[in-house]
Design brief:
alpha+beta; three-stranded mixed beta sheet; globular; 8 helices; 13-stranded mixed beta sheet
């Protein structure tokens, strides 16, 4: 006779400060477990809700900030008989603890960023960087955040000068990397930088087919305010040099005639304007995105134009799915949507949320259309 264990099921492995919580304990007390494989610009996280009817988490065990959690989801006989597969969620440190009741329960949230490196996301800093590469900046920030650096992007641009002004390390790095078309996230004890355009080129891992796949619900959206742009133009006029500014003040002091003022104005107008642009093929009729930001060279302006156009156009093909639990879904993989008419096509997974507990194992994904350039 087959038992429940012989059937299709999923279960959680959870280690707390190196000690494994047995499946017997979790089957009795686990109410909800959520693993968030986050979108670029954020960090992975888990949350665990446990029945605390015996008040162990309020007294005897007393969880503390910085306690370490390791989680793993296992599926058995999930897609076919005899199959057993695992989804390692990674290592996390406790960030928040909540108790409520009755009935009593404890909710623990843990983050991929170590507690000892939390200042990377919480503390504003001011620093000047000169003749520095992006990877060097990332390595410096990773060290302060107690993280390993995983730099998988091909590009590693050099900057004559960068100013981090009253900004957290993480937000500063995310902003600068985004300008270069590089995504940043914190995952598995690492600060990860990768090129999303390269991930978009990889073959689709999964087909989601309407009427065939185990879809619980889905949504696609289009809006005129998020329409794709066909071209981006970046323009920057550097300020007049200190030498020119000094001469201008000297001219004003010598002669305050209107002609002198006009001459000074003309001198400033000759300051070289740096312009860069990027256009999509067959972009006729699409709006133009115009950016006015500081750049040092035309090459940098062209790079910024392409990457700002990518960031804007990512908003024009968003969708989401809730599905029967599937450990294959992870941020960064590509999928094919089929059977959805105009919304068919190849998408990249922006974030994936895996949840199980008293309810069946489910996976939610946020996706966007691949840009293909």
């Amino acid at each position: 006779m087959k038992t429940v264990e012989d059937g299709r099921h999923a279960y959680l492995m959870l280690k707390y400060n190196g000690k494994e919580m047995g499946t017997e304990y979790l089957s009795k007390y686990l109410m909800d477990f959520t693993y968030e494989d986050s979108a670029p610009g954020d960090q992975d996280s888990i949350s665990v809700t446990l029945d605390d009817r015996e008040a162990n988490w309020q007294d005897t065990w007393k969880p503390k900030f910085g306690d370490k959690l390791i989680a793993e989801i296992t599926v058995v006989n999930w897609d076919k008989p005899g199959e057993k597969a695992k989804l390692p969620c990674g290592s996390f440190e406790v960030d928040s603890i909540d108790i409520d009741g009755p009935p009593d329960k404890v909710m623990i949230q843990a983050l991929a960023l170590p507690l000892g490196g939390a200042q990377a996301k919480q503390e504003n800093r001011t620093k000047s960087w000169e003749k520095v590469k992006l990877k060097t900046i990332a390595q410096d920030i990773a060290g302060r955040a107690k993280l390993k650096l995983v730099y998988s992007a091909v590009a590693n641009p050099t900057y004559e000068r960068l100013d981090q002004s009253d900004q957290t390390d993480f937000s500063f790095l995310v902003d600068k990397a985004k300008d270069e078309g590089i995504a940043v996230k914190i995952s598995g004890g690492s600060l990860v930088l990768f090129d999303e355009a390269e991930y978009e080129k990889k073959p689709a891992v999964i087909d989601i087919v309407k009427g065939k796949s185990n879809i619980l619900n889905y949504s696609f959206s289009e809006s005129s305010t998020t329409t794709a742009y066909g071209k981006c133009v970046v323009t920057y006029r550097p300020p007049a040099s200190a030498k020119k500014a000094k001469k201008k003040e000297k001219d004003k002091s010598k002669d305050d005639k209107p002609a002198t003022i006009k001459a000074a104005t003309n001198t400033q107008s000759t300051t070289k304007v740096i312009t860069g642009e990027y256009s999509l093929p067959n972009a006729t009729g699409l709006p133009v995105l115009r950016i006015n930001e500081r750049v040092e060279t035309v090459a940098e302006a062209n790079r910024l134009a392409k990457n700002r156009l990518r960031e804007q156009n990512k908003k024009s093909g968003l969708a989401s799915f809730s599905l029967d639990g599937d450990i294959r879904f992870a941020a960064g993989i590509t999928i094919n949507a089929k059977g959805f008419g105009r919304f068919n096509g190849k998408y990249i997974v922006v974030s994936a949320t895996h949840r199980l507990g008293t309810t069946p194992y489910e996976t939610e994904i946020q996706i966007r259309k691949v840009l293909g350039w």
